[in-house]
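Sample pair:
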Amino acid sequence: MQVSVEKTSELSRKLTVTLPEEKIRQQVDSRLQSLSSKAKIDGFRPGKVPQTVVRKRYGQQVREEVVSDLIQSSFYEAVRDEKLNPAGAPQIKANKVDEGEGLEYEASFEIMPDFVPMPLETLEVKRFASAVGEDDIQGMIQRLREQRKSWKSVDRASAKDDRVVIAFEGTQGEESFTNGRVDDFPVVLGSGQMIPGFEDKLTGVKAGAALDFDLEFPAEYPGEKLAGKTGHFAVEVLKVEEPVLPELDADFVKSFGVESGELAGFQADIRINMEREMKRALKSRTKSSVMDQLFDRNSIQLPNVLVQDELNDLLKPYHESARKHKQPVDEEAMKPQLEPMARRRVALALILGKLIDAHGVKVDPARVRSAVEELAASYEDSDEVVRWYYADTSRLREVENMVLEDQIVDLILEKATSKEERIDFQALMTAATGSSMLGQA
């Protein structure tokens, strides 16, 4: 086998491989010999088919199979001998495949970048800290009360936070885009559930009022027929209701599992839950700080094939959502928006892989077990969930990868220069809620 390597760009390589006809012929003859003992051809007994007949019937097919197998095996042999590390599958172009010519093909592919990560001691990272205050606890109790609020009809003009129950129809020209009148439709003023301006029209009205108004739909409105268009609304106000919060009494406290019904025990449980969520959010924010430093301080040439694979993974949820709503996905418009995230993820995966190898980090089974138990804790039968994870290596591998990342973060925090930064609890949790929807590398 003859091999030549051409560097076509920083990470692109073109491998030219030549194999002699004799090597192909030997494998073709061997396979035909094996086939002749099993071939069933009319006019011949099994195992008694002449080799010439077998070759005439199956020779071309067998040669194609041999050539395909040789391309695959010789490619991996060549990249091993040339000490190349492909980042993805090669593009194969066959130059010679006909009988008597031997085999010559070109394999074009990208290789994994070779780099040395910045020393961990040179990194500067932030350790975030926070605390649950009494105001935070009272705010949570207030939100829990609001979640269980009821509504009471009132004979007055509507105001913010009231619920206005309406009947309405929306039209555009002669066409009703609401499929006729919609009855008993509740709108909480200030919730933003309707298009801009709609709730403003319902503010300051009383039951029995009849309204007619035009509003423009936002340009990004999901319904294509209405996006950016003006619609006419005919509205009848059926009821105006004000919110009524439940009393903060023993019954309310018991409804959250505090058997004693005591407010102090309720507040203690809330603090424990909030501090647990705070701990998770602080860990995530600190990890993001570490990942930011790794990404910013390590400039790497990235294989396009890995970036494209990551982009495709990022697009999958959009395709699934589009299928559910029977809408198309404009990949060409979305890819430029998603590409920075894809490049960040690919870069961090390469950097973390180098650090794991360089520092000999092995996943800690005890931490994996602890992580699995924490994931299972919110389920009624947590033991069954733990068994579910350990019953499938692919499921468990996801947790192991997460733990391995955490171990690398711990290593970096130990060696890097770190600075504590305190953050308000509400700001921390608001940011954590937003980032969880964006996806973290």
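Residues 123 and 416 are 5 Å apart (CA to CA).
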